[in-house]
Design a protein that fits this description.
It is a single chain. Strand 3 (about 120-125) and strand 4 (about 130-135) form a beta hairpin. A 5-stranded mixed β-sheet has the order 1-5-3-4-2. Strands 6, 7, 8 and 9 form a 4-stranded antiparallel β-sheet that branches. Helix content is about 50%, strand content about 10%. The longest helix is centred in the N-terminal third of the chain and has 39 residues, at about 40-75. It has 3 domains: about 65-180, Conserved hypothetical protein from pyrococcus furiosus pfu- 392566-001, ParB domain; about 215-300, no CATH class; about 305-354, no CATH class. It is an alpha+beta fold.
Amino acid sequence: MAKRRRLTAPDTAELEQLEAGFAAKPSISPFETTTTPPIAQVAAEAASLNGMVAVTDRVALAQDQGDAARWRHAENAGLVAQNLPLDQIDADFIRRDRMVEDEEAMAELLESLRVHGLRTPIEVTPDGDGFGLISGYRRLDAFRRLSETDPRFSQIPAFVRQAGTGQGAYVSMVEENELRSNLSPYERGRIAVLAAGQGVFDTTEAAVDVLFAAASKAKRSKVRSFAVVHEALGDLLTHPIALTEKAGLKLASALRDGAQSKLRQTLASAEVSDAKEEWSLLEAALKDTPEPTEAKARGGRPQEIQRLAPQPLPGGGEILAEVSSGEMRIRIKGRELRPKDAEQLIAKISSYLA
């Protein structure tokens, strides 16, 4: 009988050697592996990419939100041009400072728009269901002419600004025309009078100070002088914008000295064919005007002109009146009178003054 072999438990050192040996040997089991399964690699890569996409999306969203905020700010400030239908724009929203248009310059503008399009949008302000024109009268007029034969010009790029009918609208109009095509001295004085007459400014002097704030004190003084000329003679002058600066200042000085009646009579009783002939008549009248006995007033509007408060009419419209030394002017706005009605009205005034 074979002898039984006596088994003894391995000690700690032997166990450590066995573990080291097993760790060094490669696994013979096909199910045991130290590498990551392919499906796990795909999932990990997808998760990583998803994380990167989420970060990119957040960055893009932040940029879009910032762009949207800047866009809204620019739009509210009137810095974003919009294409507006021509029939939604009221060209007579405010009184225009430009009195006449140069047809030669208009022809050049029309050709430029046909070839290059509009490079500078017009400026409008919301007005009811449409828009009121602030600046860009010539460009709007050109688009309307072109739209009659070319549908491309049925809409016009415009900056929409909250200018209202107040001082901002007039300032924008005057500033643009001063920069793009210089106004004549008479046109500067005239727009100051018109703006004050519409109640936008308390006085003509205030209108000059605001509309021509960037001008020198001497230039504003000249504008006031031409405002005097427009107030006293504007309804009778045929070629007012042809008045030179020297001629306008001479007329204003004479008007302040009381020559208004004499000059108005001269203009009312004569028919002139051109600006030179008109000035010759005025100059002759100035020579026949006697020298004032009192000291000459300096600056400001002529003291003999006083604008009365408008009187509203029950059926709509209003009566406007101005009183000066030896003269009164009456205008009726917002009402159409037949010649027969006008004659009856004049007869009643005559009867009242008899």
